[in-house]
Amino acid sequence: MWILHNPHPPGTGALRIGASGPHARRTLTAMPSPSLERRSSGGLRVWIDPGALQAGVLVAFSERHGGVSRAPFHSLNLGGRAGDSPEAVGANRAFVAQAAGFDVERLALTRQVHGVELRRAAPDAGGMVGEADGLVTDQAGVVLGILSADCAAVAIAGAGGVALVHAGWRGLAGGIIERGVRAVEPVRAAWVGPAIGACCYEVGDDVVQAWNRRGLPVADSSHVDPRRAAVAELRTAGVPAVASLDECTACGDNFFSYRRDGITGRHGAFISPL
After folding, report:
1. Model-level pTM?
2. Which CATH architecture has domain 2-8+26-273?
3. For the chain, percent helix, then strand, then coil, each to nearest 5?
4. DSSP, res 218
């Protein structure tokens, strides 16, 4: 299930993007209300925004089933740092790329460290591009990727290009979503991927205090909700419409959860100007 927060009023214009050449820049001028639709392909499932895709921006979130990784990474693990077979991870990334409709060779990833730094992906980006918790591009065909297993991944599309940020509790408290918004503003739409909910995310007082200082919503004195906080940050930053996946990663079995399983795999979030 997904939820649309603060949608555009009826009649909002469609996205218009114009560019040519292998290193063309994409300029976003308008965007239909964001949405997320679950699609199946060869036994795996991905969530995409069909309206954004028609308009020229690919947005996708993968689930955990339909891959080749063995337990405890079963089965569509996209993360290469937790101990899974590199061959399985490579095959899974190729499966997701095919299902979502992007070139896996153009996929840019970072070594995520739960910080607030963003990197701009070069026109020829592909593979690991450095240490950061967010990526930005305005280059056609460059695919930004974030991997997670409870933290929220937030995709952002604006006149300055697209951004993708890894929003764990530290990143949220440090303002990484606002940094992503400012990198591509004015922003037309954003998407919040699956994340752990307050129902399963018990935290210490240090986390609650850090969120209170940032003005983020907290569920109670010992629980926080990264999805709700991400949506609140986007709305505070002036994003006109947000679609979010309303599913706790720890409650069900559709996504990986570090809090639930400990050693586990990673699902992915992706955005690309086409």
Report:
1. 0.91
2. 4-Layer Sandwich (3.60)
3. 25, 30, 45
4. -
**Among 157, 165, 169, residue whose Cα is nearest residue 243:** 157
Is residue 235 within 8 Å of 6, Cβ to Cβ? yes
What confidence tens digit (pLDDT) does each residue in 83-100 have?
Answer: 999 999 999 999 999 999
Residue range 106-145, pLDDT digits in tens: 999 999 999 999 999 999 888 999 999 999 999 999 999 9
Kindly report, residue by residue over 231-251, the tens digit of the pLDDT: 999 999 999 999 999 999 999
**CA–CA distance, 79 with 73 (Å, rounded to integer):** 9
**Pairing assessment for the beta strands 127-131 and 143-148 based on DSSP bridges:** unpaired
Sign of CA dihedral 49, 143, 165, 38: positive
Region of residue 262 (phi > 0: left; psi between -120 and 50: alpha; otherwise: beta): left
The 3-state secondary structure of 220-255 reads ECCECCHHHHHHHHHHHCCCCCEEEECCECCCCCCC
Closest Cα to residue 62, out of 95, 15, 31? 95
Q: Is residue 180 within 8 Å of 156, Cβ to Cβ?
A: yes
Determine the straight-line distance between the first and last CA of the chain, rounded to whole angstroms: 26
